[in-house]
Recover the amino acids of this structure.
């Protein structure tokens, strides 16, 4: 294993740890906020209006991060019927097809990143705040979507490089 490859593995392992911590924290925060809101509204009969909006804002940010997490874990939904039928008799051709699909996904994510970047850049220039949660900058939602797109592309590139490495090692039986 080369020095660069080892460094990239460590980088993506640290990134995965950070992504997991952000998602766990968001899940706990949203659970607490919703529980607190229900408790206040139905048990104490004292509704705090901004808690529900704040929970929604935080939820939207972590919905975007769940997309990135799903991409990292290869949990996306795909239709495998076509590949299974096409490559039934030539299973070695399925790996290059998979690399092609990942490259197509990178291209698609890159195309969608352009307008998301424009929205995120505008949100830095013109911040918007919530109506009930006046201190919460709702521009963070667009900024987190841009970060999610970059992380999705990074994870797709990592997956494609791993698949290419698997293909090349299958060509050289002595290489592992």
């Amino acid at each position: 294993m080369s020095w660069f490859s080892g460094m990239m593995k460590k980088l993506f392992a640290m990134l995965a740890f950070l992504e997991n911590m952000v998602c766990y924290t968001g899940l706990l925060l949203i659970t607490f906020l919703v529980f607190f809101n229900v408790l206040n509204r139905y048990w104490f009969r004292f509704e705090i209006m901004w808690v529900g909006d704040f929970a929604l804002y935080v939820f939207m940010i972590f919905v975007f991060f769940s997309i990135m997490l799903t991409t990292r874990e290869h949990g996306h939904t795909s239709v495998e019927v076509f590949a299974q039928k096409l490559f039934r008799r030539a299973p070695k051709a399925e790996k290059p097809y998979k690399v092609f699909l990942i490259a197509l996904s990178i291209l698609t994510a890159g195309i969608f990143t352009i307008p998301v970047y424009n929205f995120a850049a505008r949100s830095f220039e013109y911040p918007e705040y919530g109506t009930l949660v006046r201190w919460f900058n709702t521009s963070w939602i667009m900024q987190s979507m841009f970060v999610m797109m970059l992380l999705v592309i990074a994870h797709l590139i990592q997956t494609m490089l791993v698949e290419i490495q698997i293909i090349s090692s299958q060509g050289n039986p002595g290489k592992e």
Summary: The chain has one domain: 3-171. The CA atoms of residues 38 and 44 lie 9 Å apart. Residues 3-43 form the longest helix (41 residues). Residues 3-171 form one domain.
